[in-house]
Structure formats: C-alpha cells, structure tokens
C-alpha cells in the first residue's frame, strides 16, 4: 500500500513566524509554491502559510502606491499575525488513500508531513496531479495508445 512518504515532496521551503509577508510573497513567487510551512528554530512545525493568507494581508496592487512602498508596508507584517496554527498534519506512514480522501473531503490544498513533530515533507494537490498524469501515461502505454489523452482532446 502506498503511503504519503511515497508521494510527498521533501524539498521544503520554510519560513519562521518572525519572517514577514513580503518575504513570504517573494518566496512563493520565486519557488512557484502556494503553501509554506512555518517552523521554529529547532525545525519543529508550528504553522502554515498559504497564498490566500498572503494575498489577504498584502497591499492591493490596485492601491495607488509603488512596489517599493508596498514591499515596505508588507515587511512590517510578521507571518505570526496571519499564519494558520491549527493545522491537520499526517505522518509518513499514513496511507496515501486516506490522505487523498481527507484533502478532497476537507478541501485542503496540502498536508504537512511530520516525524516526531519535525517537518519532513509536504503533500500537495499538485503531487496528486503528477501521480494521475504518471498513471495515465502508464495506462496509455499498456493499452498501446500514443497519448494518454482522448483523440478529440488535443
């Protein structure tokens, strides 16, 4: 049986609760991610920051201020003020089916993965999409198709 360890991403980009909204926005843009686990100085998981949280706390691009002013304002908002601290997490040996069902039922975009309260990975919706693509490719090869997509889809 597959577990979250088999699919989770262990290349983690984290921040600390003392970091600020500007740093979070920059990290998300640079790494093209939507979820940032928040850890303490010992690497223990303390919360989660989502792109939605950052957008809600950010100064609107419609505001009549330039980017430098916006960056300055956002640099004074600590992540601790907007991060989610009540986060459902999973362990590495959690069955993948259970994690997928939970994320789908609860409409969660990610699931932090812990070992002894230490963050070891993150499982996201994108991981499941990659798995689905991989399985469709395998099925297409098995069925002798040249593409996993129906002919009328292209």
Explain this structure.
39% of the residues lie in helices and 17% in strands. The two termini are 34 Å apart. It is built from six helices and five strands. It has a single domain, classed as CBS-domain (Roll). With 154 residues, the chain is of the alpha+beta class. The longest helix is centred in the C-terminal third of the chain and has 19 residues, at 125-143.
Write the layout of secondary structure elements.
Layout (H helix, E strand, L loop, with lengths): L3 H4 L13 H11 L3 E5 L5 E6 H7 L9 H8 L15 E2 L4 H11 L3 E6 L2 E7 H19 L11
Parallel strand pairs: 3-4
Antiparallel strand pairs: 1-2, 4-5
Helix pairs in contact: 2-3
What tags apply to this protein structure?
154 residues; alpha+beta; CBS-domain; two-stranded antiparallel ribbon; 6 helices; 17% strand; globular
Which band does the percent of strand residues land in?
A: 15-25%
Distance between the termini: 34 Å
Q: Can you identify the CATH class?
A: Alpha Beta
CATH topology: CBS-domain
**What would you say the CATH architecture is?**
Roll
Number of domains: 1
Order of helices and strands: HHEEHHEHEEH
Mean pLDDT: 88
Physical arrangement of strands within the biggest beta sheet:
3-4-5
Short description:
The chain has 154 residues and is of the alpha+beta class. The chain has six helices and five strands; from the N terminus they run ααββααβαββα.
